């Protein structure tokens, strides 16, 4: 397997932020009054907030320092899932013989893969563009925002007044101060998409969701990948069984997985790097990809002048309604310290803008936030984990070997597990396997809406679908409930009564039937 020679490969430079000349709208309203809502940041949270506010008729100004769309569009969800699609396709081709399909040697054209990544960004970009915002009645400006007071700011030195403001400046990849790491020109999720040549040897620092996803992807595309995780195992927030399944999958893809060790120093230059680990191991690699967390983008906003309190971590202090310590300023997305997911940022933007513009007090619900690691197998979960030590919790599991779709596709490394509290309410779930994120959605909605598993069990599920695991878990729970003393007694009484009634009707019919 080889990568396309960068000297002969066609250009795969990322698309520009927006076609034409970048322009900014006026920073004042037509009548000179303060903006109803100033949105600082044009990522997912800011975009949703601006559209929500404008939809309510609020005069809204969105200011973005770089390009609208945020990390999700340019460096996060969109490019990573486009690369994962290519990597998973390569893996599927290699695994096809187990189903009787032989495709020969698998060749990866890395330049074509990266073109697919950037073409995907370009196709989605118009949805998040300044033109789309302006079409919705939102004023858009580009520049750096600095707060100057409780209801005032400047954008590149020009004053802006607002009645309410929403901070949505997101976060950026963290790069630890490990000796020699900065000199090694480490890659992050911000710039890994600029690669034009597949790294022959890649060290991924961090075994969280991003590290596992990209580590598996690069391994499947042909890199020799080492993943170094300082914690005892990859995917630390997930349950041990799920983490073990992902770890096994990474190793099956050829990843050298180093758990419970840390990177102490890096020597050399890109293309010839020596990574020294805490256990004495030295890894010789071409590049290092850092995936050890993110830093909130609050350090240069002048929040102190606006009366907005910031934690030592850099996250903004917010209440349950996403209001900061300045009652006229709200915050949404990564900088709140809530789970740093695009879907959380979008919900935050809608909720905070509604509260700011309409005077509502809707609160964020944290117990049903789903999270998905898009490795193969996928890991999707929410709420209380299956390793709960609360004695009132019960866990019901359905192994993938009991899911007929998994058996048919020969993909039985996974399970569906649900966690119930002492009152039988769904408080957590975990799905491991293909399309786990989609399968989890039904369980997340059930928990959010307070729907019982008995209702889920009584819902007709398509067969054979991956959601059959959810149905089986719900049916198992319902049967367990029916086996309890009181329900079991009631059903036995009803069953016996029904049998006697049928026998009586049959006897009565025989007695009245005319003799022949």
From TrEMBL:
Annotated region described as Disordered, given as residue ranges: 1-28
Bias type Low complexity, positions: 1-11
Domain (Pyridine nucleotide-disulphide oxidoreductase dimerisation): residue spans on this chain: 369-473
Family matches, as Pfam families: Pyr_redox_2, Pyr_redox_dim
Residue intervals of the FAD/NAD(P)-binding domain: 36-349
Cofactor dependence: FAD
PANTHER family on file: MERCURIC REDUCTASE
The family this protein is said to belong to: Belongs to the class-I pyridine nucleotide-disulfide oxidoreductase family.
Protein name as annotated: FAD-dependent oxidoreductase
């Amino acid at each position: 397997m080889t990568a396309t020679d960068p000297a002969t490969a066609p250009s795969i430079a990322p698309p520009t932020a927006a076609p034409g000349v970048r322009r900014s709208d006026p920073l004042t309203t037509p009548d000179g009054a303060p903006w109803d809502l100033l949105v600082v940041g044009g990522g997912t949270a800011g975009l949703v907030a601006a559209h929500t506010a404008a939809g309510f008729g609020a005069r809204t100004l969105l200011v973005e320092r770089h390009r609208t769309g945020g990390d999700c569009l340019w460096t996060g969800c969109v490019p990573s899932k486009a690369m994962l699609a290519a990597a998973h396709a390569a893996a599927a081709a290699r695994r096809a013989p187990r189903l009787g399909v032989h495709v020969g040697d698998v060749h990866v054209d890395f330049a074509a893969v990266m073109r697919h990544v950037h073409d995907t960004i370009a196709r989605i970009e118009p949805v998040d563009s300044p033109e789309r915002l302006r079409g919705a009645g939102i004023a858009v400006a580009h520049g750096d925002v600095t707060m100057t007071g409780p209801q005032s700011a400047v954008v590149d030195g020009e004053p802006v007044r607002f009645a309410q403001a929403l901070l949505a400046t997101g976060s950026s990849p963290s790069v630890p101060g490990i000796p020699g790491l900065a000199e090694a020109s480490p890659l992050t999720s911000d710039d890994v998409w600029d690669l034009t040549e597949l790294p022959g040897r890649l060290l991924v620092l961090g075994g969280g969701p991003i590290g596992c996803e990209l580590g598996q992807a690069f391994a499947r595309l042909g890199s020799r990948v080492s993943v170094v995780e300082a914690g005892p195992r990859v995917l630390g927030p997930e349950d041990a069984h799920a983490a073990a399944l992902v770890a096994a999958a990474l190793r099956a893809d050829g990843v050298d997985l180093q758990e419970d060790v840390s990177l102490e120093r890096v020597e050399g230059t890109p293309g010839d790097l020596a990574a020294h680990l805490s256990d004495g191991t030295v890894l010789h690699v071409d590049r290092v990809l850092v995936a050890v967390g993110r830093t909130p983008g609050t350090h240069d906003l002048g929040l102190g002048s606006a009366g907005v309190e910031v934690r030592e971590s850099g996250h903004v202090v917010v209440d349950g309604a996403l209001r900061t310590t300045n009652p006229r300023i709200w915050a949404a997305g990564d900088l709140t310290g809530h789970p740093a997911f695009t879907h959380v940022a979008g919900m935050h933007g809608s909720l905070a803008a509604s509260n700011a513009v309409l005077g509502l007090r809707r609160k964020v619900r944290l117990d049903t936030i789903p999270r998905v690691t898009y490795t193969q197998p996928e890991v999707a979960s929410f709420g209380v984990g299956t390793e709960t030590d609360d004695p009132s919790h019960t866990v019901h599991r359905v192994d993938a070997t009991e899911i007929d779709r998994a058996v048919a596709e020969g993909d039985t490394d996974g399970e569906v597990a649900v966690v119930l509290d002492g009152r039988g309410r769904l408080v957590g779930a975990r799905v491991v396997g293909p399309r786990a994120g989609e399968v989890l959605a039904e369980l997340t909605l059930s928990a959010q809406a307070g729907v019982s598993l008995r209702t889920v069990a009584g819902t007709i599920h398509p067969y054979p679908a991956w959601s059959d695991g959810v149905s089986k878990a719900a049916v198992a729970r319902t049967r367990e409930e029916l086996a309890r003393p009181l329900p079991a007694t009631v059903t036995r009484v009803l069953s016996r009564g029904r049998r006697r009634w049928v026998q009586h009707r049959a006897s009565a019919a025989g007695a009245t039937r005319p003799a022949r």
